[in-house]
Amino acid sequence: GAGVSQTPSNKVTEKGKYVELRCDPISGHTALYWYRQSLGQGPEFLIYFQGTGAADDSGLPNDRFFAVRPEGSVSTLKIQRTERGDSAVYLCASSLTSGNYGYTFGSGTRLTVV
Amino acid sequence: QKEVEQDPGPLSVPEGAIVSLNCTYSNSAFQYFMWYRQYSRKGPELLMYTYSSGNKEDGRFTAQVDKSSKYISLFIRDSQPSDSATYLCAMSDGGGSNYKLTFGKGTLLTVNP
Q1: Is the pLDDT of residue A1 over 70?
Q2: How far apart are CA B54 and CA A7, in angstroms?
Q3: How, if at all, do strands A104-105 and B61-66 pair?
């Protein structure tokens, strides 16, 4: 596609529920990143995929968070037993190759845990 | 202390003004410096990209990096209402984890017609 697509754009869930957030990167981009942006803050790194594998998951806050990219394209961020503190905008970005240049961000999924 | 500090503003200026935005950082390993613009309910988009110290100009935008002071700036000349957005500085190191961006909080800029 023309850009990075994230669905849903908004998600409201109850505390304790499980959620999945989807990212469809630009076609041909091998590198994919997830960031989390809390209100009034800059994005914070969560995880980086090169192809199908998670090359760096050091930013995932705890074991309730997990992400997959089984075919090296679409990625899903999964959050178990959601907490109110998980409320944030979850941003996905992709780039042609690994590195800090050429990131294209999606518009994000705004997650609200009530 | 956060690795990257950025005054969140808000900053309000009249159309045509020169805008100065800046960030300080503490991690001397940072080698790559970026400025992103983020419109409301959108993802960040890259404005300026610089490596190490120096200046870079692109149209109305100038980015400056002073590694000795751990200080970076973005200048916007002849500001326009369409420049109204949040401006985020971002940095990464020069090593194997250079894909990992560390962002400032962002500065909310409003340019009034």
Answers
A1: no
A2: 40
A3: unpaired
